[in-house]
Amino acid sequence: MDYKKLGETGLEVSRICLGCMSYGDSNWRPWILDEEEARPHFRTAIEAGINFFDTADMYSNGASEKVTGKLLRELAPRDEYVLATKVFFPLTSEGMAQYSQDRPHNVGGLSRKHILAACDDSLRRLGLDHIDLYQIHRWDESTPIEETLEALDSLVRAGKVRYLGASSMAAWQFSKALYTAGENGWHKFVSMQNHYNLVYREEEREMIPLCLDQGVGLIPWSPLARGFLTGNRSRDEKGPTRRANNDPFAQDWYFLEEDFAVVDNLLEFAAERGEAPAALALAWILSMPGVTSPIIGSTKVEHIEAACSALDVELSEDEIAQIEAPYYPHTIKGHDQPTPKDMV
Question: Are 99 and 89 in contact (CB under 8 A)?
Fold first, then answer.
């Protein structure tokens, strides 16, 4: 396993981060693994040298945090792993799909009231006294960013949180947050968990250059496009796995003909190299400027082993250009991009 500092911090994390949305309660999603099913995944990850684990309060309505916290406490010393979780979405049966202004008052969002309560709830579920990386899951247009940032800063100063991070949003929003925190002497975001992979590279236009300029580490989510880049999806079928057949986001985001052109090209290149397409897709993202640790999901132990093998794959500049060649621009996917009309 290789390790890298997260952005400009002193925090050392493994180049592969294990995403823990797959562990919790199958009542939330049919492909979720329970505690006993998840245990081999955590053991394999730790034995491989992975020390970076990412979850969120809304995954399995809190059950993911419970499973993640329990297994990490069981399998690794606290000082040796980095635990990240997130705040924003309400805990409901639908999670992301249910976030709206019609939700119960003060449930979800980034108000001071919700952030402080959500952090305490996460710590209780995790069974920990602090969170290493506390991330805002999305931007909250209904709460002043000053209120959000001051609340997050207070958690760091109280010792409940070590570092702050953010996830998918418009680059101008993230720039505003970094500037506002700096002007007020508050702790800044040190990481950006953004939507980035071979079939969705819109982050290269604004967000990634901003993060490089500001020394913010990138920990991309969905680096394999929810399994799309493994090459086992087809134009006629969703895919062979339980998750592939129960993942509406994948259908909405990745099944364009232009996306299949990227995968077809990747499969051809993989055959030439004698490598698995997933390993090449991960090797590509690991080689991209600013990327610290892509977050991989695992519902089979071999997914973790395959991800770690990508660290041994080296790509030349010509090979990177060959892999990237078929890319076609996309509309924004993974977060709400405000239009001028939305802002007045």
Answer: yes
For the chain, how many helices (H) and strands (E)?
11, 10
Question: How far apart are alpha carbons 223 and 220 in whole angstroms?
Answer: 6
The partner residues of 28 in beta bridges, in order of sequence, read none
Whats the size of the chain, residue-wise? Answer: 344
CA distance 129 to 270: 45
Mean pLDDT by 10 residues, the chain (344 residues): 97 98 93 96 98 96 97 97 96 55 77 97 98 97 96 98 97 98 98 97 98 98 91 69 60 80 95 94 97 96 95 96 95 89 85
- In 185-276, which ranges are continuous DSSP H helix? 207-214, 248-254, 257-273
Q: Alpha-carbon torsion 39, 74, 133, 131, what sign?
A: positive
Q: Rounded to whole angstroms, how far apart are CA atoms 256 and 278?
A: 19
Give, for 309, the enclosing helix (H) or strand (E): helix 301-309
Reply yes or no on whether 59 is catalytic: yes
- Note if the pTM is more than 0.70: yes
Choice among 23, 59, 81, 196 that is catalytic:
59
Crossing angle of the two packed helices 63-75 and 35-47, in degrees rounded to 10:
50
Task: Count the Cβ atoms, other than its own, within 10 Å of residue 252.
Answer: 9
Q: What is the pLDDT of residues 96-139, one digit of tens each?
A: 444 455 567 788 999 999 999 999 999 999 999 999 999 999 99
Pick from 76, 61, 82: which is nearest to 6 by CA?
Answer: 82
pLDDT tens-digit series, residues 244-280 = 555 666 667 777 789 999 999 999 999 999 999 999 9
One-letter amino acid at 28 equals W
**What number of other Cβ atoms are within 10 A of residue 100's Cβ?**
8
N-term to C-term CA, the chain:
49
